[in-house]
Design goal:
The protein is an alpha+beta fold. The protein has helices at residues 2-19, 55-64, 114-119, 232-240, 260-271, 294-303, 322-335, 361-369, 388-401; strands spanning 29-34, 37-43, 48-53, 69-74, 82-88, 100-105, 108-113, 125-131, 139-146, 161-166, 178-183, 189-190, 193-197, 202-207, 211-217. A 9-stranded mixed beta sheet has the order 1-2-3-5-8-9-15-11-12. A 6-stranded mixed beta sheet has the order 4-6-7-10-14-13.
Length: 405
């Protein structure tokens, strides 16, 4: 009996030891990543799948895909909550014909432009993590670390990533206020450019770095003076994303003038940029340190959105003309790589074109061809003062352009 007790205690000790061991990865299995391209993977007890994406595998995905996109799809692995894709940053010596790498895990996706991969400038392997806190939920978390798990910090406005994830929208709500909120590793929260696609039930967002992305229903605004206004939809859409604000008392004043500083700040909030070295730029002489738009003016000057009116002056409180508004918009789109590389040379006809200043003509023509600079009654009204509703419509056109490309 003593021998049996000793054996029982020994068996209990082995069981306790095994139960206290750290989570380990299972034996590797193979899975179809898409298009019949297979790769080995492993999954640990926390639901984290690990896949090595070699450039041979990526090339095979490119051949199986379309439009120069290599797409990886993981969604049928029991217990999977997130996945880590190990990719060597020692890029192929020959130029690869690739536009983007798309990583999808449990219907959550991150689309990485190839230009971003080439600009990371890291000689080694990086781990791209995609997933969330659970297998379901209205969020996605995207991370980039080295092989030791140390986060890789980057910020690249030239090559924004596109994230998407399901959002279970209530059927009785206007979907304009559905937005994405991005939380950085330091806890800061921003509103990236985002939109909801009711055809696939997903929220999409453009971002310049990693983070946690969640869906938020941010509306309606409650503006009492826009209910029957022609610009209501654009105002609601922009207000939900924090791009435009009211004037107090639940009013927006849609037909009131918008100042140069106000529209400049709208653009900065729309494209969500933080240019490197912005604090080294000399601030405009007429921008006081306590102005609400102080940092926006620095960003806009560093980014080339505004250059001022001469003598290092911004004239922030002056009402903005329509041609000034269009030139600011064009500058922002050009710097943020949002203009198409090739555009038609069709001349857009406006009966008052003779009033357009030489420094604004090319920009207005290009925006008009893109449907981003519109007139009324065949006129572009370049010298007219832009209204708050027109400004909201302009940034709305820019925001919704993301959903088309």
């Amino acid at each position: 009996m003593k021998f049996i007790k000793r054996v029982s205690f020994l068996a209990l000790g082995v069981i306790l030891c095994l139960s206290l061991m750290p989570a380990a990865a299972s034996a590797e299995s193979a899975i179809d990543l898409g298009g019949g391209v297979n790769a080995p993977y492993s999954i640990d007890r926390d639901g984290a799948v690990s896949v090595d994406l070699t450039w041979d595998i990526i090339n095979s995905l490119l051949e199986a895909g379309e439009n120069g996109e290599a797409a990886v799809t993981l969604g049928n692995i029991p217990g999977m909550i997130r996945a880590v894709f190990n990719i060597s940053m020692r890029l192929p010596p020959t130029k690869i014909q690739m536009n983007a790498l798309k990583l999808t895990v449990n219907d959550r996706s991150v689309r990485l432009p190839y230009g971003l991969l080439t600009h990371l400038k890291i000689d080694g392997t990086l781990r791209f993590g995609v997933g969330g806190a659970s297998a379901t939920g209205d969020s996605i978390e995207f991370s980039v670390t080295d092989t030791k798990g140390v986060p890789v910090d980057y910020y690249n406005y030239e090559y924004p990533i596109t994230v998407s994830f399901p959002y279970h929208a209530p059927i009785d709500r206007n979907l304009f206020p559905v937005v994405a909120v991005q939380e950085y590793a330091d806890g800061a929260r921003v509103n990236p450019r985002s939109w909801y696609d009711y055809t696939d039930g997903k929220v999409y967002a453009k971002a310049y770095t990693t983070g946690l992305f969640e869906a938020l229903y941010n509306g309606p605004s409650g503006f009492g003076d826009t209910i029957s206004h022609w610009g209501r939809d654009a105002i609601e859409y922009a207000a939900a994303r924090g791009v435009v604000n009211g004037i107090g008392g639940n009013l927006f004043a849609p037909d009131g003038p918008v100042t140069r500083a106000q529209f400049m700040s709208m653009l900065i909030r729309t494209i969500d940029i933080s240019p490197q070295g912005m604090w080294m730029v000399q601030q405009f002489a007429d921008v006081p340190p306590d102005a609400y738009y102080y940092s926006d003016a620095l960003k806009a000057k560093a980014f080339g959105i505004v250059s001022g009116v001469g003598d290092n002056l911004l004239k922030p409180d002056a009402p903005i003309t329509r041609q000034e508004m269009f030139v600011m918009l064009h500058n922002a789109m050009r710097k943020a790589e949002m203009l198409p590389p090739v555009m038609t040379d069709i001349w857009m006809v406006f009966s008052d074109w003779s009033l357009v200043s030489d420094w604004a003509g090319n920009e207005i023509q290009e925006l008009a061809r893109l449907g981003l600079a519109n007139g009324t009654g065949g006129k572009i009204d370049p010298l007219g003062t832009a209204t708050r509703a027109e400004a909201a419509q302009t940034v709305y056109n820019l925001l919704t352009r993301d959903s088309k490309f």
